[in-house]
């Protein structure tokens, strides 16, 4: 059986272009302040940015120890994890003491199955406590987890399991969502069918449903846990040992496994939870992302538990049984920090979401897409006085939030404010020739200096890592995003570089056209894409969903086109405006622009 180990043994590079001593001291202070180390590090930062960068060299620590054990002396009985089911009566909570015992037990159970430090464990579970418990159990013994979204089909799961060289897969029988039962074990079976590295499958009995069973490979989670001891010493890991691999998928490429390491990632997760949200042990945070995405890793699991807070894990759909569920959860469970996406909040516009958030909510953060200006006043009206509204920007490769408005300012803003990089982070916008734009201007967003939670590579794909992040702007981390910096030095992220539209010698932001459309009172949502028009020019297609009871009509079409011309200019006027009942979205909730682009191209071809 091939044994995949992630723990590297190569000697440390002798080359170094390390950061200056003040910066090193800043990050050293953060690592000391936010984490407990078994052994202090010798060198804060070593190696070259984007090449062989290493942080906290020589330091030893353990993630689960930092998330759990160190809170046992001070707050053992505080709720660490609060799980909520889609059914409003369903909940389960774990104190820090209980979560520690569970994690230790599962860590021992994994050891009992022969799992060793450096082994690759794929976790494909719904949003249930066992997902958090198994992730932490892996870290306790030094196994590397790859948590995969449970909604994938067998092929998407197979690509990830295979790439990662998974030895043990953890899954469940079925799961419930939006009131329906969904298959999981059968998908996992199909996914690992031809993957030789998988030797065991641990199955959580989640719905007590019938499933196929392979006696030589499959084991029940509850059975192996029953036999395991609740005491498992945390393994001392090197700061640069991988903590997890997380897959991102570009629209056109196979999924790529971003590698995050222990010391740097954890330092940054805890630091941003503190600096952006002011999160501490008195808080209850609800991050509505899925644990399978980086947002879930950093702000459901690691950030909150490192800070000793209570973290809410909600299994259901946000619209169940209605769009006010979010505000009921916030009230009932005393949520003080809510981290969600603007997409979910758009229901404020249709009036389906109209129940104000209760008074203890002090931060409402968003991520994923920019918060639209027309949404901001609606959100402001729904949150209590003094609640900060923060549009945060980051990505899988950054490990944690990179830019946001300052917390204090976000508490009182009555319109959207631009973001600032957090202390220690140096961002810039570059023009088309690769030169830094020094004043106000719009261009490609890069990160100029290193930070501890930057991904260390793409699993087994160093060439793509270089190509994606470091080839276009040598010496900088390329975010792939376009951003504008205003006169006050604030940043406004517009979207992916690949989503820009080139037409009539101009570069248009699809986002701006979308925003002008969604400001119209008849429009619920809009997606705008450029598609090839047989020359260097692209044509513009707008896909529009309407708010009830608006009806599609030629006069409304003309009105919307006129509205866009007025707000965004004549060049921004779409060549094609298509009505649709919903916008196609990926499983991660992103608008599937490639699909819309292709649809527009075909429709134009047919008309030609
Ligand atoms: O284009 C940016 C967009 O989401 C991308 C990162 O996606 P992912 O790696 O899946 O991570 C998602 C959550 C961290 C970014 O490159 N994005 C994220 N936040 C914002 C955003 N675009 C605009 N405004 C934001 N606040």
Description:
There is one protein chain. This protein is an alpha/beta fold and 608 residues long. Among the domains are: 61 residues, no CATH class; 143 residues, Rossmann fold (3-Layer(aba) Sandwich); 72 residues, Luciferase, Domain 3 (Luciferase, domain 3, Roll); 108 residues, ANL, C-terminal domain (GMP Synthetase, Chain A, domain 3, 2-Layer Sandwich). Helices cover 30% and strands 24% of the residues. It contains 18 helices and 32 strands. The strands form 10 sheets. Strands 5-4-17-16-18-19-20 form a 7-stranded mixed sheet, sandwiched between helices. Helix 13 links the parallel strand 19 and strand 20. Helix 3 crosses helix 4 and helix 5 crosses helix 6. It starts with 20 loop residues before the first helix and ends with a helix. The N terminus is likely disordered. Adenosine-5'-monophosphate-propyl ester (PRX) binds next to helix 9, strand 26 and strand 27.
Question: What is shown here, in short?
Answer:
The protein contains 18 helices and 32 strands.
């Amino acid at each position: 059986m091939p044994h995949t180990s992630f723990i590297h043994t190569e000697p440390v590079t002798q080359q170094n272009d390390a950061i200056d001593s003040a910066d090193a001291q800043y990050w050293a202070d953060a690592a000391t302040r936010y984490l407990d180390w078994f052994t202090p590090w010798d060198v804060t930062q070593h190696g070259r940015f984007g090449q062989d960068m290493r942080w906290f060299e020589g330091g030893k620590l353990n993630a689960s120890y930092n998330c759990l054990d160190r809170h046992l002396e001070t707050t053992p009985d505080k709720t660490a994890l609060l799980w909520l089911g889609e059914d409003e009566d369903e909940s389960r909570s774990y104190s820090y003491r209980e979560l520690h015992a569970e994690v230790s037990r599962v860590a021992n159970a994994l050891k009992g199955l022969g799992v060793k430090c450096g082994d690759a464990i794929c976790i494909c579970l719904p949003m249930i406590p066992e997902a958090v418990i198994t992730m932490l159990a892996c870290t306790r013994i030094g196994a590397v987890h790859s948590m995969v979204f449970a909604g994938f089909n067998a092929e998407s799961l197979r690509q990830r399991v295979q790439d990662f060289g998974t030895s043990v897969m953890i899954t469940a029988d079925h799961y419930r969502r939006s009131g329906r039962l969904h298959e999981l074990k059968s998908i996992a079976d199909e996914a690992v069918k031809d993957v030789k590295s998988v030797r065991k499958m641990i199955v959580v009995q989640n719905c007590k449903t019938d499933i196929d069973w392979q006696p030589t490979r499959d084991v029940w989670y509850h059975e192996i846990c029953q036999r395991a001891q609740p005491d498992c010493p945390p393994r001392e890991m090197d700061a640069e040992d991988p903590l997890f691999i997380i897959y991102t998928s570009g629209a056109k490429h196979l999924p790529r496994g971003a590698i995050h390491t222990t010391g740097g990632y954890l330092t940054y997760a805890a630091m941003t939870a503190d600096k952006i949200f002011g999160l501490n042990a008195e808080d209850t945070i609800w991050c509505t992302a899925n644990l399978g995405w980086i947002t879930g890793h950093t702000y459901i699991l690691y950030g909150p538990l490192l800070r000793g807070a209570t973290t809410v894990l909600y299994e259901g759909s946000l619209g169940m049984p209605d769009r006010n569920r979010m505000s009921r959860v916030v009230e009932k469970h005393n949520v003080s920090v809510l981290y969600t996406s603007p997409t979910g909040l758009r229901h404020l516009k249709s009036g389906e979401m109209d129940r104000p958030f209760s008074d203890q909510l002090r931060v409402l953060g968003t991520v994923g897409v920019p918060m639209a200006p027309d949404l901001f006043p609606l959100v402001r009206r729904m949150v209590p006085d003094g609640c900060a509204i923060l549009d945060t920007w980051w990505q899988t490769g950054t490990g944690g939030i990179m830019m946001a408005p300052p917390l204090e300012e976000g508490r009182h803003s009555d319109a959207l404010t631009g973001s600032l990089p957090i202390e220690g982070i140096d961002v810039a916008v570059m023009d088309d020739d690769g030169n830094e734009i020094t004043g106000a201007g719009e261009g490609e967003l890069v990160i100029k200096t290193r930070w501890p939670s930057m991904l260390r590579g793409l699993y087994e794909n160093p060439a793509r890592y270089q190509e994606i992040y470091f080839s276009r702007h040598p010496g900088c981390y390329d975010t792939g995003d376009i951003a504008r910096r205003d006169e006050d030095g604030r940043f406004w992220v517009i979207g992916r570089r690949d989503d820009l539209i080139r037409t009539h010698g101009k570069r248009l932001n699809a986002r701006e056209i979308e925003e002008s459309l969604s400001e119209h009172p008849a429009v619920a949502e809009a997606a705008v894409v450029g598609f090839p028009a047989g020359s260097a020019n692209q044509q513009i297609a707008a896909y529009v969903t309407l708010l009830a009871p608006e009806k599609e009509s030629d006069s409304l079409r003309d009105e919307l086109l006129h509205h866009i011309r007025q707000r965004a200019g004549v060049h921004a006027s779409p060549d094609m405006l298509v009505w649709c009942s919903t916008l196609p979205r990926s499983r991660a909730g992103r608008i599937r622009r490639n699909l819309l682009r292709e649809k527009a191209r075909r429709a134009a071809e047919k008309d030609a």
